[in-house]
Recover the amino acids of this structure.
């Protein structure tokens, strides 16, 4: 997908999570068939491993209420992380980060979200270095300290700071502001910003981010109208639960516009 001469990347949010159970190998394999990049979340386990899961508890996706940080990886991987999505997916286990990277084709990419803080960086470095796929990986996190440490430990991997600004109902101002987000990102020597699609996203904000040498990804974009607007603004990446569907619909729009 092209816009203003820029390539817009469609990123599979937790894999192809509209069709398959989020953050499972099934979801990632499908996501990589539909687009170039999958995104996932990591949480540290009791024994210091990295489990691919969004929440700090397994309850929502497995039905068993285990705190990830209070159980070893081997125990957590006995749970069923697929059945909640349907019988077809029964038996899908929550994978480790090693397993997710291992099934990634060498011509694809993976965006890793650190859900905690910098305490996971040593294990993340170990996994990344052992994978042989360091050049295909990226990192993003809401934790500024985690981003700082990731940049220091893995200088060849792009790192993005995630922000989810809130609007003050009295003043209408967003916090953090675009300037604050850019400042924190630049201060840490990061490569870009990831923002939720309700804030910080207008033509002037995108221009300001790009003029500072940064890239901008937006989540979660599941509507064609929203995707078209953001592409028109010049964003670099769209993180979506429906990568295959969204790419197909956008291609239809482009073909109609071109008279094909």
């Amino acid at each position: 997908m092209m816009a203003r001469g820029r390539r817009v990347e469609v990123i599979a949010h937790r894999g192809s999570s509209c069709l398959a159970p989020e953050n499972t190998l099934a979801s990632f394999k499908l996501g990589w068939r539909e687009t170039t990049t999958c995104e996932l979340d990591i949480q540290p386990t009791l024994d210091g491993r990295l489990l691919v899961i969004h929440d700090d508890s397994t309850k929502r996706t497995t039905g068993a209420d285990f705190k990830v940080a209070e159980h070893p990886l081997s125990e957590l991987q006995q749970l069923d992380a697929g059945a909640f999505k349907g019988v077809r997916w029964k038996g899908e286990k929550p994978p480790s980060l090693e397993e997710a990277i291992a099934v990634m084709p060498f011509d694809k990419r993976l965006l890793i979200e650190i859900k905690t803080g910098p305490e996971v960086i040593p294990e993340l470095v170990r996994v990344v270095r052992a994978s042989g796929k360091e050049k295909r990986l990226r990192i993003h996190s809401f934790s500024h300290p985690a981003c700082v440490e990731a940049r220091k430990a893995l200088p060849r991997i792009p790192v993005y700071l995630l922000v989810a600004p809130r609007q003050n109902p009295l003043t209408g101002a967003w916090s953090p502001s675009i300037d604050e987000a850019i400042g924190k990102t630049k201060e840490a020597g990061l490569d870009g910003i990831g923002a939720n699609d309700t804030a910080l996203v207008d033509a002037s904000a995108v221009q300001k981010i790009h003029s500072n040498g940064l890239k901008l990804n937006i989540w979660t974009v599941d509507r064609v109208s929203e995707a078209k607007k953001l592409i028109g603004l010049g964003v670099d990446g769209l993180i979506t639960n429906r990568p295959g569907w969204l790419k197909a619909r956008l291609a239809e729009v482009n073909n109609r516009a071109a008279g094909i």
User: Anything to note?
Assistant: The chain has a mean pLDDT of 95. The chain is about 35% helix and 20% strand. The longest helix spans residues 243-257. The CA atoms of residues 49 and 73 lie 6 Å apart.
